[in-house]
Design a protein that fits this description.
The chain has six helices and four strands. With 139 residues, the chain is an alpha+beta fold. Helix 2 runs antiparallel to helix 3.
Length: 139
């Protein structure tokens, strides 16, 4: 992986959080040090956003691209996987991609914990009700 990208992972993660990125992958010459030319190479990323609406797609995409270029001090090609129609390009990206950032699933875990916190007491109530139903049937 290209050295500058590796050194800036925390700053890249902050940008991803700022722009609502689900995951960001590096691909192309920056994934292979022997092919990457620090004087001429750009850095290629493929991005997937969380809940991307048409009204904010352009702002988030261009904001992330611009700030990545400023951070890495070089041109950035940023692609959205869902917009890639060329199957050969898609396959090449799939073979080369290196995950740089992935949004944590903390929100899901928090919601699940809140939703299931009361389940043990509900289970006891249901068992109690079922035992009373069994008592009534024997009468």
């Amino acid at each position: 992986m290209e050295k500058t990208v590796q050194q800036q992972r925390e700053a890249i993660a902050s940008l991803c959080e700022k722009y609502g990125v689900a995951c960001l992958d590096l691909f192309g010459s920056a994934t292979e040090p022997d092919r990457f030319d620090p004087a001429r190479s750009d850095v290629d990323f493929v991005v997937e956003f969380v809940q991307l609406t048409p009204s904010d797609a352009f702002r988030r995409f261009m904001g992330l691209k611009t700030e990545l270029e400023q951070l890495l001090k070089r041109p950035v090609d940023l692609l959205m996987m869902r917009s890639i129609r060329n199957p050969y390009l898609r396959q090449a990206i799939e073979r080369q991609r290196v995950r740089i950032y992935e949004r944590k699933r903390v929100e899901i875990q928090v919601v699940w914990a809140a939703a299931t916190a009361h389940l043990p007491s509900l289970l006891m109530e249901v068992q109690t009700m079922l035992s009373h139903v069994g008592d009534q049937e024997s009468l």
